[in-house]
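Q: I'm teaching a short session on how sequence maps to structure, and I want students to see two examples side by side rather than one. Could you give me a first protein with its sequence written out and its structure tokens following it? Keep the formatting plain so it prints cleanly on a handout.
A: Of course. Example one:
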Amino acid sequence: MKLGIITDIHNNITALRKILDEFEKQGCTGIICAGDIIGIGPYPEETIRKISRLSNLLACVKGNHEEYLTNGMELYTNMDNHEKRYHIWEHSKLSEFSKEYINHMPKEKYLSIGKKIIYVTHYANEDNKRRGVVRNPSVKDLNNLFKEIDADIIIYGHDHAPINLEGNKLYINPGSLGCPGKEMDIARAGILTINEEVTYKQLNIKYEVELVINKINEYNYPAKEEIKKFFFGIDK
């Protein structure tokens, strides 16, 4: 079985469409999303609607950006006001359907495929709170982060950097689909194949990032310059 793996779409419907086309070309029969569908980009409603219509979506879990909506922005007292205003703007663009869809997303999910147990989450949790991000994690780091999880394969996201490491479990983070950083026009994803053997292929697909940047400029929403700098590599 071929599974398309995505995470950290971040309202980038342009990149998402490109990756979904690639999954179809490569014969993926299921899709797993490790959270952060929304946040950062200019297309919140369109992106949620696209995800919600996927007939082969096997798992889709909440990321921290979904939690900003479900928990309420007033809870995040340490967040910069400029960033907070962006999220308020973004949430105002979501329909009641999309808000309900987000509210009903689970924080984690287990799947049984073939003879393998897959655990999907946005990032490691401790006492129902997300652990701090470990950058460039080693196998030892990941074994420690997910030591309480009884699964063969861990799929996660959050730090936007691709990971494919095997320790006590197979750890997969395809990297951010919608926030290319300095790579500018690359949408990231992966294909996990589970048959007698388990294999993983990283995907780095070019897409029309200028369409996204143009829409950010057109909407002129809060924190747009910081977003373009840190998440799209544009510093001007």
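Q: Perfect. Now a second example for contrast.
A: Example two:
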Amino acid sequence: MQLVCNMALEDGIEPAVVAAVVAADLAALDEDCALALQFTESVLARDPGAEHLRERVRLAWGEDGILSLAMGISTSRVYPTVKYVLGHGLACSRVHIAQRTVAPMPLPSATMAHTAIGGVSP
């Protein structure tokens, strides 16, 4: 996560925006960033609310936007998963963004409250 945050900063993304995404602070994001973050978190949580958000994404950015987010979401999970399997999963418990330390936070999901350990609903 630190690497991706550093690349976002190098690409000119404002530190406050990067920090807000990491902290899942929707109130600090513009409407487009908040939508992308909500959709991403819903998809990763397999939240049924992703269906509604997908339609909002389609209206905002079309099929190319859906495909772009699909590729970004999918590929962004490979490296952290491999890292976690190899025993380095706690390395991103704190992220440093422009002299500020931010704790990564997931957005609450409608399905998270109903999911047991192991990802299986009771």
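Q: What should students look for in example two?
A: Point them to this: Residues 2-114 form one domain. Also worth mentioning: The chain is about 55% helix and 5% strand.
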